[in-house]
Amino acid sequence: MATTTRRLGRTDLEITPIGLGCMPFGGPGIANRYYPTLDQATATMIVRTALDGGVTWFDTAEMYGRGYSERTLTTALHQLGAGTGDVVIASKWTPWFRTAASIGRTVGDRLAALQGYPLGLHQIHMPHGSLSSLASQVRAMAQLHRQGRIRAVGVSNFSAAQMERAHAVLAEYGIPLASNQVQISLLERRIERDGVLAAARRLGVTLIALAPLHTGLLTGRFHEDPTLFRDVRRIRRRLAGFSSATLTRTAPLIDELRAVAAAHGATLSQVALSWLTSYYGDTVVAIPGASKPRHADESAGAMSLHLTQRELDRLADVTP
């Protein structure tokens, strides 16, 4: 399926506006606190559905099961016959209680877990927790780039000032900062106020929207049946602020999503994702997760949905 792609920052990597977030593939450990463990057959079906829908890139991390998610993803890609040049894989280094030197020491583990697929984008998972300075971490990433072990350098959960600092350090090596992965959705728009969006546009950095459906709240299913909250793991409920008050506060937005979805023969999720990847121009891409093949199919379908400027603005206006 031919799908429009976007350049990842100022790198030579091309990605689709929608990728697949692979935290649900994480298995035992931190990821399992958020999602139940998926078997390989289910994960492979999810990846197949994403590829069939035109998705060309996948976001995973060392933290998602210490390689479990990376291996599950690449096992699926091998089973499906995806070539190493057909997809872009992004992963992340975990900084907690480690020095910058561990970036170089652990990249071999990342590459081993990717089972022959190249590490397209390597990201610093968060700006805190490391025993080394931010500049030292970014320089270690730059060395991997110079060695040809990674194709692009990104960050995650960085503020505007931290992103500017990372960009400046990489510039010393002639390397662009490719991306910053942060929470963005119709219900999380702080990038418009905290300088992250403005800095990304000025520096040519792509913003990767994590939790683009706000932990499922933008699907509308919890508004239809609030008892479904019970099926969401406690940590996800807490992070998303799930409550009866939240349902009441967000009801006007859900109603507007339903109206736009009905006009296009789409789902609420597809409208929310299309808004996200259109409202901010080419600056923002999204990585919705999927625990079932139909989730991946629905997300990929958002790339074929084109909202009018009036619809984009109306949805922005009713955001609580």
UniProtKB/TrEMBL annotation:
<keyword id="KW-0560">Oxidoreductase</keyword>
<dbReference type="InterPro" id="IPR050523">
    <property type="entry name" value="AKR_Detox_Biosynth"/>
</dbReference>
<dbReference type="Pfam" id="PF00248">
    <property type="entry name" value="Aldo_ket_red"/>
</dbReference>
<dbReference type="InterPro" id="IPR023210">
    <property type="entry name" value="NADP_OxRdtase_dom"/>
</dbReference>
<dbReference type="InterPro" id="IPR018170">
    <property type="entry name" value="Aldo/ket_reductase_CS"/>
</dbReference>
<dbReference type="InterPro" id="IPR020471">
    <property type="entry name" value="AKR"/>
</dbReference>
<dbReference type="InterPro" id="IPR036812">
    <property type="entry name" value="NAD(P)_OxRdtase_dom_sf"/>
</dbReference>
<feature type="domain" description="NADP-dependent oxidoreductase">
    <location>
        <begin position="17"/>
        <end position="317"/>
    </location>
</feature>
<dbReference type="GO" id="GO:0016491">
    <property type="term" value="F:oxidoreductase activity"/>
</dbReference>
<protein>
    <submittedName>
        <fullName>Predicted oxidoreductase</fullName>
    </submittedName>
</protein>
